[in-house]
Amino acid sequence: MSSTACQEPVQHSGVLRFYSAVFYAGSSFVITVVNKTVLTSFRFPSYMCLGIGQMVATLVVLYAAKMSKTVQFQDFDRSIPLKIFPLPLLYVGNHITGLASTKKLSLPMFTVLRKFTILMTMVLEVYILRKTFPKSLVYSVVAIVLGAMVAASSDLAFDVEAYSFILLNDAFTAASGVYTKQKLGTEGLGKYGVLFYNALIIVIPTLLASAVTGDLHKAITFEDWLEGTFIFCFLMSCFMGFVLMYSIVLCSYYNSALTTTVVGAIKNVAVAYIGIFVGGDYLFSWTNFLGLSICMSGGLMYSYLIFNHKSSGSNAEGAQELKIQQGSALQTK
């Protein structure tokens, strides 16, 4: 294969890599606002039923797209559960431990401990996807985690149960991201198959769980179902759940599980910065602000290294990283 043939897809994928990351960050921000409106402003009583609505929206949109020949993915057969495994289990584990840790931890400690997802993702990519990383990229990840630790250093309240839940949540999130990247190369599945069958397999068990725990009854008897504003926000949340899942898969497809995790971290820090000036519920401290700045610097450094190394053809480190990424892509196909 000639060098010219190799360069064209690299430049093209560079654009897709950047915009898929921006798409994920934007989708994550929008669904945060919409979910907060549904769960906090309207006091909708069930996180689980809202998640079920998002799964149903994913199934409806993708099934309609498949029927209209807009997208293509494998029809369901006995091989699908094996192909998609263990993504459904990781999704459920991520959901349960995430809710538990959110309730038990203060926001500062929740923020710092969630950043360990980035380190776990990097480790799993090394062992599962056989990737290697240049030192500069490792330093930027360390800076993100260090910044989060500094930001939360004024709120060191140790709780064994809470710490266990949040670290399990980190592990589930990291494993889900890495295995999603791996499953995207599975024959017959692709981006849309991974989304559709993951939602299809877990929606019924989640519905049964909501019925057993009483969440389903609380959701059905919710008093604002006839209010137009709530219905609009609820449906918007369901649709944005699909958009978010699609943006995560898209970002992982064009980039990596690690990049997707870092983009999420940058988005969270950006939201914290905005909270300093808007909202009025941010308690300013120089320690917290310094930590946020270190965290953001590490994230921006990571972004620069990832999205600009391809344009510098004389950079040997960038060329080596590119070969590693191409080799991983070939292994997953």
How do you describe this structure in short?
The protein is 79% helix and 0% strand. It is mainly alpha-helical. The relative contact order is 0.18.
Q: What characteristics describe this protein?
A:
333 residues; mainly alpha; globular; disordered C terminus
Give your account of this protein's structure:
The protein is an all-alpha fold and 333 residues long. Helices cover 79% and strands 0% of the residues. The chain contains 14 helices and no strands. It is globular and about 45 Å long. The relative contact order is 0.18.
Distance between the termini: 19 Å
Number of helices: 14
Q: How big is the Rg?
A: 20 Å
Provide the β-strand percentage band.
under 5%
For the secondary structure, the number of strands is 0
From N to C, what is the helix and strand string?
Answer: HHHHHHHHHHHHHH
Coarse morphology: globular
